[in-house]
Amino acid sequence: MKNRSRRGAERALLTLTTVLLLIGAAGAAWIAVRGAMAYQHLDAARDVLVGVGSSDNDPTVWADDLAAARDDMAAARALTSDPVWAAAGSLPWAGPQLTAIAELAGAADGALAALEPVGAAASALSSGSLRTSDGGYDVELLASWEPAADRATVALTDATSRLSAVELRDVLPALADQVTRAHELFARARADADALHRTTRLLPAMLGADGPRSYLVLFQNSAEWRSLGGVVGAVAQLNTDQGRITLTAQASSTDFRDAGGEPVADVPEGLRPLFDERPARYVQNVTQLPDFAAGAPLAREMWRQQHGTEVDGVIAVDPVALSYLLTTTGPVSLPSGDVLTSENTVPLLLDEVYRRYSDPKQQDAFFQSATSAVFGALAAGDLEPRALVEALDRSGRERRLLVWSADSQEQAVLDGSTLQGGLPGSGDGATTLGVYVNDGTGSKMDYYMRLGTATTWCSDGTAMLRVTLRNDAPDPATLPEYVTGGGAYGVPPGHTLTGVYVYLPTGALLQDNTVTGDADPSGFVRAQDRGHEVLKWSVRVAPGQSATLDLTVATPRTPRLETVTTPMLPAVAAATEAPSCADAG
Question: What is the tens place of the pLDDT at every residue in 221-254?
């Protein structure tokens, strides 16, 4: 009896085992078939997404492309979200592959669902529907895109977070590559969606949707370095009302009074040892401060004292940003007979004008005429809105366009963006150092100067930063005295005296610094600015010479080590090899 019972149990166990094996085999087949189908959908969607937003892809088809990619992603998600697939995620070897596919499909499907309305906005930009019949901008249409841009930003943030959490150590290389590429793609898309969200929140009000606004525009001259770009050489007041833009006043920096030698406001405490009170006394120097939120209010107060107008905000641009804007307007004619184009803006404004006119007043008049022509074309010209958005976006990413609002709530919208021109820090997986350059020569020689930077993480956790300056100027005898400085401030003609300000992340400490090269270093100053340790390096460089500064910095290690620098002219950077950790300390 016991034997029959034992045999019955054995038969039952065998039967159960057989059933489980059959179920397992069926489950494996189920997963294999659905996995292959899901991977095909993911691959098809990826091919579509790689082309969306590229320079050769017409935005009018973005909505269709995104819809097609969404269909593939939705199908992939449906194929990888059933209970059998989820249970198999715990299996050895196969589990990580299945989890990676499911997370990729789920993250991408959610992101694309939110991106479709943004594609429609891109199509509207390209079609020109943002312009009104009277030459203004449709502020109501622009504001209507804000909810979609907000949802896209949130969804893309979630997608990048999900993909960041996928463990790729045991995932097949081809699939791991898919996840990595998707993460990079959605990270870029998130940055674009975030920029659109900030724009749709801020720009309608700036364009006068809620009533007239006024803005002071600072034009930086990159031939004479300042931390944020260049010396302020010309200024203009723009007024906006219901999407229309008018240029109402212009002035040269030489038109500003010195306020009796008194600063117009207090310079933040940590900045005084580095920059003295010059930024608060001279409009030329407000961009010496590497924090635009500190310098812009000084310029606003100077304009109020000069013209009696209290503007709603301050904007700064450089000649390269103007050249980007000219790609949207096309060439503009100047009273001098010159035709300003995107190709000749930089050499004409920063080199040719000084060779042509020896009188600074004539130079200022030329700058003002160029400014008036460009903004006149922007305000009234027949331009493509999408091209304008691209030009402004590029200028912002390169820190050539800076914006400050006197309204604290509007200013908060800019928090964390490059438009704010803020100090470097650590976050988003990166440690960022700031390298800002300021001319001490009283010349326009920085048209010929080159700046290069390179970084290295060392095994002991310290960071190495290398900064190289090179003077590529021709024979000083071939340059106007106004350009060389004529020996003012004790600097020989053709030489440059540069103050290099290196800002360390909050909490980082400078351990060592070394200078090499054939230039004449003039010394160092160390200071603190709102939690940042700052090293100022003063160095004089003759034509054909270069100088290199190596720094060793103690700071918590992150996946990336980056630098933010003063925006340079589009020229060859000073060749800078990554510093060697063997030379540290």
Answer: 999 999 999 999 999 999 999 999 899 999 988 8
**Residue 526, number of CB atoms within 10 A of its CB:** 12
Contact 484, 494 (CB under 8 A): yes
* pLDDT tens per residue, range 128-181: 677 787 778 889 988 988 888 898 889 888 888 888 888 888 777 877 887 888
Please give the Cα distance from 158 to 156 (Å, whole number).
Answer: 5
Contact between residue 471 and residue 542 where contact means Cβ atoms under 8 Å apart: yes
- 3-class SS string, 15-63: HHHHHHHHHHHHHHHHHHHHHHHHHHHHHHHHHHHHHCCCCCCCHHHHH
Amino acid at 198: R
CA gap 201, 150 in Å, rounded: 10
Average pLDDT over residues 418-438: 86
Q: What is the pTM of this model?
A: 0.84
- Listing DSSP states for 111-156 in one string gives HHHHHHHHHHHHHHHHHTTTB-TTS-B-HHHHHHTHHHHHHHHHHH
DSSP assignment of 333-344 equals E-TTS-EE-TTT
- Residue pair 288/218 in contact (Cβ under 8 Å)? The answer is no
